[in-house]
Amino acid sequence: MTAVIWACGIILAVATIGILYRLWKGPTLLDRVVSSDVLLTIIAAGICLLVFAYDRYIYLPILVVLSMIGFISSVTVARFASNAPVNAEIDRVTEVDQKDVEKNLETGSEEG
């Protein structure tokens, strides 16, 4: 069992190195946010590995808090990542549809 724990630890360490590179080098802000979310997940997986290796369940509340932070941060970034609010996007689509209807009326076309 010790070999499996060490193998998982090595895999998590390599994944952490890759994610830290993406966090540092990421071309956009969203890349950095996603990589920080994945880093939080890797940390949670490492804590799970500690719980399994040492049979200490005292770390489980920390896992719950980390999971909540990861979920809330992902939802928050997804909500505020778009440039326009949802209502403005709907208004813009409605405006485009109205322009198409007006254009079709002017040309006499009944398509659309």
From TrEMBL:
Molecular function via GO: sodium:proton antiporter activity
Compartments in which it is found: Cell membrane
Membrane spanning residue stretches: 6-24, 36-54, 60-82
InterPro entries, sorted: MrpF/PhaF-like (IPR007208)
Stretch forming the signal peptide: none
Topology class, membrane: Multi-pass membrane protein
Pfam families assigned: MrpF_PhaF
GO cellular component, one term: plasma membrane
Keywords attached to this entry: Cell membrane, Membrane, Transmembrane, Transmembrane helix, Transport
Similarity remark: Belongs to the CPA3 antiporters (TC 2.A.63) subunit F family.
Protein name: Cation:proton antiporter
